[in-house]
Each structure stands twice: as C-alpha cells, then as structure tokens.
Amino acid sequence: MKKVSFYTLGCKVNQYDTEAMIEIFEKNNYEVVENNEKADVYVINTCTVTNLGDRKSRQFIRRSRKNNPKAVIVVVGCYAQIASEEVMAIEGVNLVLGTNERSRIVELVESINEYDKINYVDNIMDVKEFEELEIDKVKGKTRAFLKIQEGCNQFCSYCIIPYARGPIRSRKPENIIAEVNRLSENGFKEIVLTGIHIASYGKDLKEASLLDIIKDVHKVEGIERIRLSSVEPTLLTYDFIKEIKALPKFCPHLHISLQSGCDETLKRMNRKYSTEEYRKIVENLRREIPDIAITTDIIVGFPGETDGEFECTYNFIKEMAFSQIHVFKYSPRKGTPAAKFENQIRGDIKSIRSEKMIKLGNELMNSYMNKFIDKKLNVLFEDYYDKKKSTIEGLTTNYIRVVAEGKEDFIGRIIKTKMREIKNDIMFGEIIDE
Ligand code: SF4
C-alpha cells in the first residue's frame, strides 16, 4: 500500500480541502501517515494570508524531501496559487496545483515521478464552477465543517484571498445535502457551514440562497446543530434573523466579521458597512435571540489607524459586548492595495494595541460566560481535555467551551451539563444528565 502524508496550514476551508483530498487518496488505496514518517507522496496545503504561511510551507517542503528523496512532493492551496513560479523554484517540488483541480490530485500524482516538475496552476479568475470535493467523515471529530462556497468578490484592501481563491462559486444544493446525509449517517451531530465568503452563497445560482441551504440542512435527521462560519454583517437583514430564529437547530451564535469599529478605518479597508449598520444588526439579533453569542475578528494597526481611530474601535467593541474576539495585528500582504498605503503603523504600536484589545476581549468573554453560571446547557463533547484526569471538553450551542469530568463514551454526544465556575478563562461544568 502506498503512503501519503499531509501538512495543512491556514483556515477551516483549507482543512476541509485537505480532508477531501485525504478521502480521494484513501479511495485509491493509499494509507495516510503522520508528516514525520516516510511517505511516497507529501501534500502541502498552503496558506498565504501572512508571509509566515509562505515560510512554513517552504520549510515543510524541504523537510518532506529529506524524509524521502524518492517521494513525489505536491504543493496546493493559496500560496501555490498566488506564487506558483516561486513554489516551482523550490528544490524538491514536483507538482504545483493551487486552489483548483484538487479533485484530480491522485491521477496527476500517479502520472509523474520524483524528477518531474509540473505547474498545473490556472488563472483562478477564469474559474466559474465550484470544484466538487467531498467528505464523509472528519478524522477524530464530532463537528463537521462543510464547505458550501468558494471565492470572494469583495476585495477588502488588506486581503489577498480574492486573488488566491478567485470569484464566488456556490456548491450545488443537492451535493451539499447529500454530504450532510452522509455525515449524519457517520454520527456527526453538528454541521458548520463554511466557505471563503458564505454571505454570497447562491448569488451565482438561480435556485438557492444561504437561507434555503440552512433550512434544507435543518430537515436532515440526526443533525442536531447548525452553525455558520464567519459572516458579513450585511447578510443579517431583519427577515434573515426572523427566519433563523424559527429554526431550533440553528445555534444561537454568529461570528460577524467587524475588522474595525471606526468608520474611517472601515472605508480604507474597503469594507461595505458602517458601524451604525453593524450596531443595528446586533441590536436586532439581541432583541430576537436574547443571549445569542456574537463573536468577531478585529485588525489592529491598519495603515493610518490613529490613536483616536483605535480608541473608537476599542469603545465600539466594548459597547457591542462580544462574547469572543479574535485580534490580528495588521501585516502588509504583498499584492494588496493596503500594503502600499502610506502611514504604515510601527510594530511596537501594533503590539500595544493588540494587547489592549486582547485584554478587553478576555474581559468581555468572562462577563458573557458569567451569565450562564449555575445554568444547565447542552454540551456536544468533542474530545478529552485531560485524559489522565478523565476530563472532556465540548461546546454549548452558544459557543462556550466547557470542560467536565466524563467518560470516553460521552465524546460525540450532546449532554446536559451544569455550568459551575470559570477558571483561567475556561468554563468548568458538571455533567448532570447522561
Ligand atoms: S470579505 Fe474581505 S476579508 Fe473576507 S475573504 Fe473577502 S476580501 Fe478577504
């Protein structure tokens, strides 16, 4: 049996693409091995959101070549798409695939040897169809991230993704539902609908919208929870909110991308909403779905961000009372407009702003979690927290990570758990109903 090894960088969409490629190799009788082992094929699924991703990808290519000088080395993903010539020039690379044609990976790998060098990257801007990649399972997981959409047409000024992933393409509804059925048969209880820009799902199709997909997934027996990965605020019209509110399987949690809480910064970022619109959406959500968890992403140190603009963002985040924020220090990405903007912010200022924002995020998270102390919530346990101490961890519907004492056979089940105390930003609970 031939062996293949994967190394994946980057986001959930990349992880989904890797899972799908693993299944293609397995269907063709390959054994998947750890990436420090000797394999016949090494696949590096790269990310290019930061320059660090590029560097890590190059390191892993070199390490793989050392593990087995006769292996076929394949580089796929966003970095390969953006800089295919640069990747081709790395010693040891045999095949470069980018963000399309991954469904043919085994066929292409088997047509080459360790001396070939083939660049298979096309102009992604010309790709109009969603590339069908399927998963039936996700190794060791109980929540499945399911890709429904590819590409982005937004062109935020700091982001390289539209150039790496190309224009929006929606997956056909029947293929999504077939995959949800297979995941349900394989014991998955929670589906997280994901994509590069899921708010644009359906814009290139006539027959379906994101809401239609959510409703169709809702009908699938065995699926008990539906979540969305990051969404743009503009998706959340009052009608959309009313509709999701009526769906009991839809988790009371939304990750609504904000990036900045200052209108001037948002304009420079080429984001398509104002803080006033964002505020209205959050108010509507909280009115309709009290206690909903709202999480977000923030970039600090964007070019031209003055002390006043940062202060404005800080105050807006405090006002929005997010239950979690992911803070990113702006890092210029070659090939994007913002990388050429004047008034780039110094690294030490970015670090101070980032620390301040992370501290605020932790305070807000603790204050959100505090509201649930002594409440009984359903937790989908996903894994051991500490095997030696027999503690397991999982998520509530409103995205609180909970640790509790529990047996191995609780993993993969939804169990009523009483929220007991918060220690070091972690909620500890007690399983009360098996
Ligand atoms: S919406 Fe903006 S940040 Fe998100 S992928 Fe598209 S361009 Fe990048």
Automatic annotation (TrEMBL):
Signal peptide: none
Key words of the record: 4Fe-4S, Cytoplasm, Iron, Iron-sulfur, Metal-binding, S-adenosyl-L-methionine, Transferase, tRNA processing
Enzyme class: transferase
Reactions accelerated catalytically: N(6)-L-threonylcarbamoyladenosine(37) in tRNA + (sulfur carrier)-SH + AH2 + 2 S-adenosyl-L-methionine = 2-methylsulfanyl-N(6)-L-threonylcarbamoyladenosine(37) in tRNA + (sulfur carrier)-H + 5'-deoxyadenosine + L-methionine + A + S-adenosyl-L-homocysteine + 2 H(+)
Positions of the MTTase N-terminal domain: 2-114
Entry's family note: Belongs to the methylthiotransferase family. MtaB subfamily.
NCBIfam families membership: MiaB-like-C (TIGR01579), MiaB/RimO family radical SAM methylthiotransferase (TIGR00089)
Protein name (database record): Threonylcarbamoyladenosine tRNA methylthiotransferase MtaB
Native organism: Paramaledivibacter caminithermalis (strain DSM 15212 / CIP 107654 / DViRD3)
